[in-house]
């Protein structure tokens, strides 16, 4: 071939290569346009704008609620000249009971009768006809009633209380999360109040916290958050189950949602007086919660290290390798009865010595022997 023919051949190859590149670029741009038309339409934009507006309204409501709570706390000394114990010595329910002048044997905590399965909170009457929370609601299966306060699942709550009377389920923790930005919220799922409200009152299945689900937003989001921490399945299920019900009470306070919380997870007096991130309300030990709230200015910048260590060291007092699920009468998986009783009790939770030795100030004032737990 002559040099001219070789040059024409090179030119044709170069032009063909250029055409191929232009064609591939065109195809890629068409795919991007199709993706934008599918996922970034006007309806999607409107949904985002509605979400932003909803968050703004939620922020305004929380600010008003915080102001009312602060004014309520400041008025306690004038309305109730009673010498209350120091923060952390008694529970919130006991402090309210003392300020109202109730006798010692007339507690405000929910009580469950063995044969009627009826809760009573002061003069609140709660009839329970839906069974225990540890069964799987998706299958509508129920388990026999157990005479423990936190195991009832009230469905019909007639109220006969004076509107001016203090009720434990109305006294929410004094949180300082900034709901105007996702970075200011201490737990990711709290940024979606509408999705939380639309989630079922109780989890659909314990498997949702272990493997995720597409049917329950709150369970699935808690699952995704806990998967980022080195938790075993028993701790992941227990943390998820308690966190689910605590979240439902925080966003929808009522005797029903409050009764589903175990006593040790209910806010103490200190939690209603000292502003703190919401995530601290999810710790299972009241005294540890109070210590961390009081010293949050020390640990605020060390939160990642602190919660990472806590995830490693927190344990359920459950035999290694023992099953945490069992089959119900419908052959569907539900939480094992004995495991449910364990994590619904404060004595069922423990901390390894590594956490206690590294953060002795956070366990100060607690019975170390009752908290420490070594995995064998």
Automatic annotation (TrEMBL):
<feature type="region of interest" description="Disordered">
    <location>
        <begin position="135"/>
        <end position="155"/>
    </location>
</feature>
<dbReference type="InterPro" id="IPR021833">
    <property type="entry name" value="DUF3425"/>
</dbReference>
<dbReference type="Pfam" id="PF11905">
    <property type="entry name" value="DUF3425"/>
</dbReference>
<protein>
    <recommendedName>
        <fullName>BZIP transcription factor</fullName>
    </recommendedName>
</protein>
